[in-house]
Amino acid sequence: MVSQLAPRTMRRSRSLAVDLVDTLQARIKDGTYTTGTRMPTEAEIMVEHGVSRTVVREAVSRLQQARLVVTQHGIGSFVSESLPEEQGFRIDPVDVETVVDIVNVLELRVSLETESAGLAASRRNLRQLAEMQNAIAEFEKCAATGTDTLEADFRFHLSIAEATQNPHFFELMRHLGTTVIPRARVNSPQLAKEDKSAYLDRVNREHKTIYDAIERQDPDSARASMRVHLTNSRERLRRFAEAS
Prior knowledge:
The chain is mainly alpha-helical. The chain has 2 domains: 2-79, Orthogonal Bundle (Arc Repressor Mutant, subunit A), CATH 1.10.10; 93-243, GntR ligand-binding domain-like (Four Helix Bundle (Hemerythrin (Met), subunit A), Up-down Bundle). It has helices spanning 2-10, 16-29, 42-49, 53-65, 99-123, 126-145, 150-163, 167-176, 188-191, 196-215, 219-243, and strands at 69-72, 76-79. It has a two-stranded antiparallel ribbon with strand order 1-2. The longest helix has 25 residues, at 99-123. It is elongated and about 60 Å long.
């Protein structure tokens, strides 16, 4: 039993949707599907690749997240007029497929954002503090009304990266985007065995603790608070991956 489960612990098989994304993405980037032109219909893709409509829709959704495709409801999907520029380093939505992938990205974020919080505590200005406060307030509002908190969550972390006054922290975080927030990919409250509202309240309380340390210009506490915030998520996901 152990030998059978071990490979799955390391990495699950790539889904049909991700395989299809790879194919369609390659055709967009090599010019087979040129910018502004209409993509094949769902039915045409299903026939050519032998996949279900659900797989096609998931693949198109991932291409939309990667800003390669735009969809006009009732008309069809089109290759984006302005494709995102190639970056020296980038994690695309299509690269974050399994729980193990998310854990790997969280390990990167722990290293990056722990130091980011410390630098922000030393260098932040009043405008950046206000942006952090606005993101926390927006998160709380979205959680209370049942709307998506991802954008507010990401804005909080991005504003900390900006407050480092080091453009490389900001650019790297901006390129990572909301995709690397775990609940964009998995049901984080369920993994934490918490009610969703309680889970989101705890996440935002952790945000407030980080903000308080940055506001009072305490780099050590800011680093510690950010590490706790991200490590909590990483360990929950790691335990889930090991048990899967």
